[in-house]
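Example protein
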Amino acid sequence: MGSPPGHPPLPRGRRRLLLGLLACLCLWAACDGGPQAPPAPPPAPAEGISFFGIGRESRYTQAVRRELSRTLGREAIERRSLLDLEISFGGFLRDHLPELDRLHRRLNDPPDERVEHEVTRLMYRYARQAGAPFDAVDLIFDGPTGKPLLFRMRFRRDEAGTVAALRERYGPPEVLPWKTEGGESWLWRREGDLLVLSFVPDQFGQPSHRIDLYFTANLEEAAARRERTRRGGAPSPPPSLF
């Protein structure tokens, strides 16, 4: 069949170009007019370990302090403190948690000196009077960044079922035996955070409980910053926390 009357036939090259453009327009119209697939959701953040609503990405602020006071009662505050990561007896970290032992030595070098760090240490000694299931709570935040470094909680009686709650939330622990008869520790690891629950026998063989929560990524950051400072490098300026 020829071209319509009065219209000369298109050259073959122009005809191919026109057909290609029409195909592209049809494809664009089909894609634009049809339902669009929703964008892929961002990956969920990795879940570590938290206490009192505070995890490794949290920051210490006055609002956090007020909320903790409502939960744990009045606190004492230190702005400089030791960072002793050891658990219960010397050599425990070396025997069971060598990665923490290395961090402990880096944070406390030289070993024959008392090394204090710029931190915010909150100490609660009347937490039970505020309704919390602990006899003593220490929360240590990094001074320059406000990130949590080390949380420690002590309790003798477990009326609140804290031990069972930890097992339910984090699953079966890794058991770390002690050299001392009747003592042992349970370990949970989550995305680099280390949670250690220790059963510490008293003189009558009755256990008291100790929880140590290590935010190892933040401890590593603090250790690296201290090493840079000791070598003479200027530390990074801290963010504004308040």
